[in-house]
Amino acid sequence: MGHLTIYQDNYTNSTVISNRFIDEYMHAANDAQLKIYLYLIRMVSARLSTSISDIADKFNYTEKDVMRALKYWEKSCLLSLEYDDNKNVTGIHLMDFAPLPTTPVIAPVPAVSVPAPTVAPFASVVPISAKVNTADTAPAQNEDVYVKPNYTLDELKAFKSNEATSRLLFVAEQYLKKTLSANEVRTILFISDKLGFSEDLIDYLIQYCVDRGKKDLRYIEKVAISWAQQGISTPKQAARLAGKYDKAVYAIMKALGKNDTPTQTEVSYITRWTKEYGFTMDIIFAACERTVLATDKHRFEYADSILSNWFKANVHHKGDIQSLDEHYHKTRAAKTVSGNKFNQFKQNNYDFDILEQELLSN
What is the pLDDT of residue 113? Predict the structure, then answer.
């Protein structure tokens, strides 16, 4: 694709981000969408040209990723795309934000003897037609990008009729070794449509989950949402994320009864146990076993308290744990004996033979 002309309604000699964008649009966009929109603002402010391929190279995206992001912002009415006769993108028009709707202010009816009050200077009356148009163009404020919509059958058919989608669904069925149900196709549509995953990233996502023995689309959806929240938009970024977590992490997760992708907090706990404390896996597994037997909630916090105490007690081997347990039981038994009410009195030693002679002599 050739270079594109990017222009907007109002030009300014600086890169300015509207508060409206931050307040109303930024929270629902993923990492790729945000980067590309901000980059376009920067380019138009500097009067520089760019292209789809240039943007893809700059952020290490595919051209499909870039087009997906541009169409997202076009749906949000923040830009419009211009095409030539061959349907190649030739221009990007950055649009002004729609004006905020305001509520008409009606001055109170004055009493006969009292002058009419002055309308506050910030009040304005908006025509009904203007308010209707603004409502049509404003984005849904309560829309949650991580909640799967109730897609209609028509939307589902349109998604499945796409040639690229057909390939993707075929690959997914090969990985999962089954025919996808309508609800499972909706899940893939959600990952593509709402989360903005490219075909390559969805392919990698399914393969990643299957390699870990997870073929449930509900699990795959949770992983996809986790990746989207962390700004993952390419297979390379997903691979780097997966590489951060070695087999030990997943083994400890499993020992604590966790089957999801580890969160940053959970990884920080495991890193503390393995790196900072230097515990071997058998010691960590021993703490995990005690944790699972003791509680169903807050297991990472519970295991961390056990391992922190063992670290303070200089535990290095499983034999050290046994010694600690024995010392604990002896100390507890001693406290129980000393706390018995029959042992609270002062104990005296009597010579009963002398006492008997003293009694007989009296």
Answer: 42
